[in-house]
Amino acid sequence: MDILSVEDQERVVNAISVAESKTSGEVRLVVERSLKEPSALDAAIKFFKKLEMDRTSLRNGVLIYLAVDDHAFSIIGDKGINEKVAENFWEATKEQMVSFFVKGELTEGLIAGITHAGEQLQAFFPRRVDDINELPNDIYFGNR
Q: 19, 100, 117, 134: most buried by Cβ count inside 10 Å?
């Protein structure tokens, strides 16, 4: 059984596209069945580099990492974001996601997190006229 149905994957990818339509920032989602790193943060850092998210022109990529079976997730932003925001910047996004996750609403939690991340990015990195999509919007599945 896949982690997300095809329909749920389409809804999540659409949420990424909508979020990115308002910002020059880039949002990626990595979903795995279980952690292979010591923590969700360690996994997020690994995938951030693997997916070349540190190569955006404004260094404004955001990665949401989720390990479903371990009930673990993390949100990290690149240098350009971290230089502009408070250390606990992503806490409100995490809280929104958790409010859905605890009810077993995985897809809704991911969409809420992506939407909120896009809104936060828009405040610091509004979409520019010459903006291009620097990274794919698809979901990256690690181990299933």
A: 117
Local structure of residue 128 (DSSP, 8 states): P
From residue 10, give the alpha-carbon distance in Å to each of 13, 14, 137.
Answer: 5, 6, 10
Q: Report, as an integer, the average pLDDT of 61-70.
A: 94
pLDDT value of position 12: 96
> What order do you get walking across the sheet with 72-77 strand by strand?
72-77, 61-67, 26-32, 139-141
| Residue 32 φ/ψ region, left for φ over 0, alpha for ψ in the -120 to 50 degree band, beta for the rest | beta
CA 120/CA 6 separation, integer angstroms: 28
pLDDT the model gives residue 1 = 41
* Residues 132, 133, 138: CA angle, nearest 5 degrees: 170
Domains of the chain are 6-126 (3.10.310.50)
| Cα(96)–Cα(98) distance, integer angstroms | 6
